[in-house]
Amino acid sequence: MQDAVPETTKRPCEEDAGELRRRLELVQADERRAQALLDSAASLMALPDAVSVMRGTAENAVRHVGFPHVSIYRLDHDVGVLEEVARVVLDTGAGEIHLPGMAPVTALPVDPEPIELRPGHPVAEFALSDQSHRLLPPDEATGGRGERLMVQMRVVGRSSAGSGVLLGVIVASGDRPPTAHQTGLLRSLASLAAAAAEAARVEEFRRQLVSAVSHELRTPLAAIRAYNELLLDEDAGSVNDEQRLFLQRIETTCMQLDRMVEDLLDLSKLRAGEMVISRSPVDVVGVIEHIIDTLSPEAARRHVSLTEEIIGELPLISSNSDRLAQVLFNLVGNAVKYVDEGGSVRVRASVCEPRSCRRLDGVRSRSEESPANSDGRCLVIEVIDDGPGIAADEMDRVFDEFFRGRLTERTTKGSGLGLAISSRLTRLLGGGVDVDSTPGEGSTFYLIFPIHSIDSVDSDEIT
């Protein structure tokens, strides 16, 4: 009979297994914490300004990284000071247990006194250094018992320096020294927060620039057009044919600038989610005929054939006639502008059944509304031209802001905003836009709208 293994020989193995399980659980907990932090930090990109981003960062550092106390200082480069913009603490009662990332936090009043960016203050000295993070002794003044971890928030790429531009400093503290995992998470959070804060800063600057430029341009443009109209009407005296030609070119240029200002304002509203669109039953045929009448003079001037083709009887769609006309004006206007003299542009509209509309599923997936009330069919408006076309490697960028294809940018000027605005507006109207093109043969832009029953085509507003 085999001798029994003494009890003392089992304990080391059992202890090793227990330690291994404990380490494994810690690793899994760290992974869950890191994933929760990443998911939460992604929401920082949606915050409207840099201060909001930094406040959200402080909350994330407390909830997900595990620091009971976090402060964030924003660097004002113009004045040369660090301003505390966020101070967040963990707010848990005795014995309370919360799910990871769900612990309540409290925002405390920040210190109104800025820190001058010069030696003498530990946070200022750290901001002046080239270190990405640093540990400080506990702050006895606040009763802290653990080491404080400071991490720099830098945006890489805004300067020639490899370390990037400093936006702020995160100061985190707790009852115990931070672990290596906490340090790594806080540094990653600082990088994400810096990118989000920079994006918010750029977006705010863009909004201010668009607003300033649009208002500064509108007033002189209105004056120029008014005086030009007086000259064309010969209120200031007769004009000869050459002078009239020059005045007409001035009017055309003013209209282009006015359209660019309107495009900038529309794009700004669309990007900010401030575009409000009222919906009602719309007769697509009437909208198409209006666009054809509006652009026919320009087409005739360039000797371009501009025609419409309405196939069958088209139903009403839930849309906005003004915004749909704006989209079609951009698409048809581009076609007229980019085709060679003597070319052709055709606007075709028809009803497409689900089996034959290969684009409908893609449009539904990109639509801003649910197609639950759709009867399965779609209304397709095609803008077909025989112009220079779009290069194959540029097809994915056609609807990007300020993008202009290389096959057309040398021959025709434009802002590169029309298609981007058209794409966003079409999605808001419940449809989608697509394009086919062959370089040297032409392009076809498609507007596709699911058709709803007439009872569901009611007036409403969307943003």
Topology:
Elements: H1 11-41, H2 50-65, E1 69-76, E2 81-90, E3 105-107, E4 115-116, H3 122-128, E5 133-136, E6 148-155, E7 165-173, H4 180-232, H5 241-272, E8 277-282, H6 284-301, E9 305-310, E10 317-319, H7 321-338, E11 344-352, H8 360-366, E12 374-385, H9 418-428, E13 432-438, E14 442-452, E15 460-462
Parallel strand pairs: 9-11
Antiparallel strand pairs: 1-2, 1-7, 2-3, 2-4, 5-6, 6-7, 8-10, 8-15, 11-12, 12-14, 13-14
Helix pairs in contact: 1-2, 1-4, 2-4, 4-5, 5-9, 6-7, 7-9
Tell me about this structure.
This protein is an alpha+beta fold. The chain has three domains: 23-202, GAF domain (Beta-Lactamase, 2-Layer Sandwich), CATH 3.30.450; 204-270; 278-462, Heat Shock Protein 90 (2-Layer Sandwich). It is built from nine helices and 15 strands. It has helices at 11-41, 50-65, 122-128, 180-232, 241-272, 284-301, 321-338, 360-366, 418-428; strands spanning 69-76, 81-90, 105-107, 115-116, 133-136, 148-155, 165-173, 277-282, 305-310, 317-319, 344-352, 374-385, 432-438, 442-452, 460-462. The strands form three sheets. Strands 1, 2, 3, 4, 5, 6 and 7 form a seven-stranded antiparallel beta sheet that branches. A five-stranded mixed beta sheet has the order 9-11-12-14-13, with helices on both faces. The chain has a three-stranded antiparallel beta sheet with strand order 10-8-15. Strand 13 and strand 14 form a beta hairpin. Helix 1 packs parallel to helix 4 (180-232) and helix 4 (180-232) runs antiparallel to helix 5 (241-272). The longest helix has 53 residues, at 180-232. It is elongated, with a radius of gyration of 31 Å.
